[in-house]
Amino acid sequence: MLSYAILIDGGFAKRKIGTAKAPATAESFRSLVAQLQQHEALAGMRMHRVYYYDSMPLETAHQKPLGGELVEFGASPTAARARNLFEQLAQLPFMALRLGELAFQGWELSAKKLGNAVGPSVEVKPDDLRPQITQKGVDMRIGMDIAALTLKRQVQVIVLVTGDSDFVPAMKFARREGAHLYLCPLGQRVKPSMLEHSDLCFDLPPAN
């Protein structure tokens, strides 16, 4: 019997199955996994494990350059929601979390403020500044797990839930080593290179 692993790009999936008003929850991901398991493309196969990739919330505090306001990122509702999500996901059966980190890179002017600017100068207020935060270690973890699952022959099929073309090299590697790569972009329009280097691209049926 063929076995498969589901690899979920968490940042991408949260945007696709949740909204600002109704963020994705652990139940949302449990339902997503159940839908994938029931998909005809995986009929008759055994699920090895689900891997979920995301970043730990930013816990540091930084002062804004204008006004000196101290922003405690770890105390924000977004950080609390992320911690709660990860705690609940870790309790789901056959779920393994692979968490990278977020790094604060300073403050930047909001795109909206620049877009509305008229003339050679612009007046900047504290609320016009947005934190510049980058994600580290997530893509690397996905690539390493694809390589490990493939080289150790732990699974024969990898189901990658993402729409990010940065994973094309890892996809190509898996196929060269004999694994089948199934892509599930959750309705996202993907680049031709992702279709070229996947064996099958499928979506989930609409919810009843």
UniProtKB/TrEMBL annotation:
Give all residue intervals belonging to the NYN domain. 118-183
Q: Which Pfam families does this entry report, sorted A to Z?
A: NYN
Recorded hits in Gene3D superfamilies, A to Z, give: 5'-nuclease (3.40.50.1010)
CDD domains annotated for this entry? Answer: PIN_NicB-like
Q: Which GO terms describe its molecular function?
A: RNA nuclease activity
Know the name of this protein?
A: NYN domain-containing protein
Supply the source organism for this entry: Aquariibacter albus
